[in-house]
Specification:
- Helix content is 31%, strand content 28%.
- The protein contains nine helices and 17 strands.
- Bound molecules: ligand PPE.
Amino acid sequence: MTTAAEAVAASNAKAVVKASAGGDQGIDAGLIWFNGKIVPQEEAQVSVLTHALHYGTSVFEGIRAYSTSRGPAIFRLHEHTQRLFDSALILRMPVPFSQDEVNRAILDTVRVNNWPACYVRPLIWRGGQTLGVNPLPCPVQAMVATWEWGAYLGDDAINKGARLITSAWVRLPANAMPGKAKAGGNYVNSVLARMDAVSAGFDEALLLDQSGFVAEGTGENIFFLKKGVLHVISHSVNLEGITRASVMQIARDMGLEVQEVMATRDQLYAAEEIFMTGTAAEVTPVSEIDYRPIGSGKAGPISLDLRQRYLKAVTGQDTRYEHWLTYVNV
Ligand code: PPE
């Protein structure tokens, strides 16, 4: 005979198994830096009453560590940490760690996991104290997770070029959401657009701003080539991509003229080449937008050349850009 209390305990135990089965099993993050301590992934847990889970009050970064001849190196660590702290400032989140401490946490997490190369995800969020919209009473917490993450939109997107569709969702207007902050809540906009694009059989969504100008992808900035000039969509409502800035520099160094512009979707249709940039996406060529082939309808030669140059920079093979690297083992 089981008592009612035993039945509740048994059903709770099942619920725990279920909850963890619906958790993060698909990601092997090994050891995670969690509020100042390195712990196994299973121990880096938060309450279901976490403010950020209810209201999107988190800020994060996406960083990559690359394999180099001197071991793993973080690409543009200081720029990413600065943007993380800027995002926290925008959301009025007092970070209980200094930028130096976060830099060290990132380096330590990559080191203790022995990844040759990996993706790095620092996250800062409002924890549980009280619920209700006002986050100010809630403590600010932090973690750094790392895992291996390959081609963001799949290998086909790189080799053949990604297929894009313009989203019916408008990119966050600047007076509605802070697009310069890499805030969890902002990504509902990206999530909605990405789901529609993927469900319709495309690789990625192209988001326009409120006035119909090209904004960005759900996780990438946009470049296009026209009459041999490399155009990059101006910041406006977009995230100021660190890959974007890096690729602009690399393109100028190879002698390309680079212009920051506002552009309409029809300007993209008539471009010679298009590619997207992002930490996860790196440099991903675009072969089609809204059923129109771009240029030859394949990954463009300058896009692929810039991709190769970018990969040489991030892996330390092009020493001109070595100042962008922070070696993990020093
Ligand atoms: N725009 C958006 C909306 C964006 O999310 C990213 C990065 C960029 C532009 C490019 O920024 P940068 O990484 O500094 O070049 N997207 C991150 C998150 C992707 C995800 O799926 O999560 C990333 O690439 O890490």
